Amino acid sequence: MPLAFAEPTQTPVPVHVVDADGLEEALSGLPGQSRAWAQTQGFTAALGQVVTLPDKAGGIAQVLVGYGKAAQRARGRFHMGAVAKKLPKGTYEIASGLEGAALEEAALAWLLAGYKYDRYRKPSTPIAGLIAPSSIDAARIAIIANGEALTRELINTPASDMGPDDLEEACRALASENDASINVICGDDLIMANFPMIHAVGRASVRLPRLVDMRWGRAGPLITLVGKGVCFDTGGLNIKPGGSMGLMKKDMGGAATVLGLAHMIMALEMPLRLRVLIPAVENSIDGNAFRPQDVLTSRKGLTVEINNTDAEGRLVLADALTLSDEDEPDLVISMATLTGAARVAVGADISPFYTDNDTHAAAIAKAGKQVADPVWRMPFYEPYEPMIEPDVADLDNAPKGGMAGSITAALFLRRFVESPYMHFDIYGWQPNAAPSRPKGGVGMGARAILEALPELLEL
User: Fold this and answer.
1) How far, in Å, CA of 108 to CA of 7, rounded?
2) CA distances for 85 relative to 114, 128, 339, 435, angstroms
3) CB contact at 8 A, 426 and 345
4) What is d(CA 164, CA 421) in angstroms, rounded to the nearest whole number?
5) Dihedral, CA atoms, 355, 361, 365, 370, nearest 10 degrees?
């Protein structure tokens, strides 16, 4: 069910958001009985604290929500998402205490709090409804929330129901909803069409590898989004240990995030041309699996020595990035759950990104702060280029030593694209439940990119 604001079919309960410094003023503005009730309930405006004030009929007259101090709020985000799940069933409106970007974040947090992955179980009870604040662009917020929900749904779905064919169907459904065109190259046709590395990575699976190519828009600058669609990653012949394979249904998180972002762009009817490229594969083991020490020739003509079959994501992305260059886009952005090194560097909550363009980097960083989508710029550090250059071939897909793993992967990808380029090495998973982000699949970086697009493309 789509995430949506509540319809104003009944009088909503007002919600007053109170920060710690405004507690006395907020309490003094209440009628005597309500003030006494709030004090009896121990309301101190602590972050996330909720007190419902009764009316004469025993219903809820209004709600006080604690917003804490600025330093406390800075240690998290989407605080109103936790509030939404604490309130009794009903319809509410944020009547005071928030405005501008903070109000927009609160509204988005409330909608996202309503997301739950329940494909395989009885649907959960909907949370309390929120009337869209009149001062925000409610339609935009709802579109963003549903783009994020799409990303989460795709990542959360296990590989039994989210193989390359299922990911293709998700792309087709999105294209159909938005009047976009779509073309898919599948199986051995990838060889004929010169996508050798996508084919090599996916050929050992009974679920055929494929490249999905979706286009939308007729005018404006061209942006191409490339998403890693490894629907399950065993590691190939360099098989992962069981503990490392447990979350590999999320290895298509780059593709899922790209599709969520594409939904936002198309539903918002942004004045641009959009291309989405998703190499969708399953990295499996069979007699025809690609091997360590194999040398593959990429679509670009660069040869790649395979020193670890578990570094497969950069291989499928490389062929797709080469294709992206062929119609000279104004900007190419790749998104991938690519390296564990990125997680070691910045943890699960931050999206590290790479770009050579300082203006683009500043735009993304500013946007990330504005929309509570944390990002961090990483360097295309050229002195590390020799690390991806083996003696046998042009490139090495898995440099020895384990140093700078995210950087060397990004440098590898940059070899395959000449257009203005940005790469996001995301995690795509929320390891522990947080406000508006239940444990499971999560979008990262998409909202920052969306916010920055007008500046990135000079729209």
Assistant:
1) 16
2) 8, 7, 34, 9
3) no
4) 26
5) -120
pTM of the predicted structure, to 2 decimals = 0.97
Gap between the Cα atoms of 104 and 392, Å rounded:
54
Q: Treating both helix axes as pointing N-terminal to C-terminal, what angle do 253-267 and 138-156 enclose, rounded to 10 degrees?
A: 160
Question: Taking a C-beta distance cutoff of 8 angstroms, is the pair 341, 431 a contact?
Answer: no
CA distances (Å), origin 344, targets 348, 350, 382, 426:
9, 11, 21, 12
Residue 143: pLDDT band by 50, 70, 90 thresholds?
very high
Helix (H) / strand (E) containing 19: strand 13-19
The answer to whether 212 and 276 have CB atoms below 8 angstroms apart is yes
Two structure tokens written together for 377? 């710029």
Rounded to an integer, the average pLDDT of 23-37 is 93
**Phi, then psi, of 264 in degrees rounded to 5:** -60, -50
Distance CA 36, CA 57 (A): 18
Q: Which residues contact 270 (CB under 8 A, 6 or more apart)?
A: 217, 220, 453, 459
Q: Rounded to an integer, what distance in angstroms lies between the CA atom of residue 235 and that of residue 306?
A: 13
Could you tell me if 277 and 323 are in contact, meaning their C-beta atoms sit under 8 angstroms apart?
yes
For residue 16, report the phi and psi dihedrals to the nearest 5 degrees.
Answer: -110, 120
User: 208 by DSSP, 3-state: which?
Assistant: coil
Within 20-117, strands assigned E span: 50-54, 60-68, 91-96
What are the residue numbers of the active site? Answer: 240, 314
> What letter would DSSP give residue 5?
P
Q: What is the 3-state secondary structure (H, E, C) of 33-47?
A: HHHHHHHHCCCCCCC
| Polymer length in residues for the chain | 459
User: How far is residue 229's CA from residue 248's CA, in Å, rounded to a whole number?
Assistant: 11
Phi, psi of 145 (to 5 degrees): -60, -40
- The Cα-based distances of 105 to 86, 126, 180, 308 in angstroms read 18, 20, 30, 42
The two structure tokens encoding residue 217: 């828009």
Distances 100 to 136, 137, 218, 270 between C-alpha atoms, Å: 8, 11, 33, 22
The tokens describing 363, both together, are: 């735009």
The pLDDT, as a whole number, for residue 9 is 80
- The pair of structure tokens assigned to 405 is 């793993």
Sign of CA dihedral 339, 345, 348, 354: negative
Q: Give the model confidence (pLDDT) of 409-437 as tens digits.
A: 999 999 999 999 999 999 999 999 999 99
45 phi and psi angles, rounded to 5 deg: 65, 25
Q: Which residues contact 318 (CB under 8 A, 6 or more apart)?
A: 197, 298, 299, 300, 302, 304, 412, 413, 415, 416
% of the chain surpassing 90 pLDDT: 97
